[in-house]
Design goal:
single chain, about 100 residues, mainly alpha, about 0% strand
Length: about 100
């Protein structure tokens, strides 16, 4: 039985439509995390640097964008991690995904 594709796999992004689908999935992922936190809250300021219930490390738009920017600067916009040089739908999807997980 084939495993279901990860809806947040930036490698699957190759054109405008797949990018927009990726962003929709990222929004749904965040909404699910917010709902899970409402049901079982954690306080990362007390617990230390921990992700919320959905694996999000950056809870505000400011911290999300700052993390995405740090990833872009640290990885030369993903080139040091094997992403193609130059702008592409996939690179931009990776930028958005890293806002979720980059510390």
């Amino acid at each position: 039985m084939a495993e279901a594709a990860d809806p947040l796999d930036d490698a699957s992004v190759h054109d405008r439509e797949s990018f927009l689908a990726f962003v929709r999935n990222l929004v749904a992922d965040r909404e699910t995390a917010v709902e899970a936190e409402r049901q079982n809250p954690t306080d990362p300021r007390v617990l230390g640097l921990v992700p919320d219930a959905g694996g999000w490390y950056n809870f505000t738009i400011e911290s999300y964008l700052e993390a995405a920017l740090r990833w872009a600067e640290d990885s030369d916009m993903g080139e040091s991690q094997g992403l193609p040089p130059g702008p592409s739908w996939r690179v931009f999807a990776a930028f958005l995904l890293c806002g979720k997980i980059y510390e």
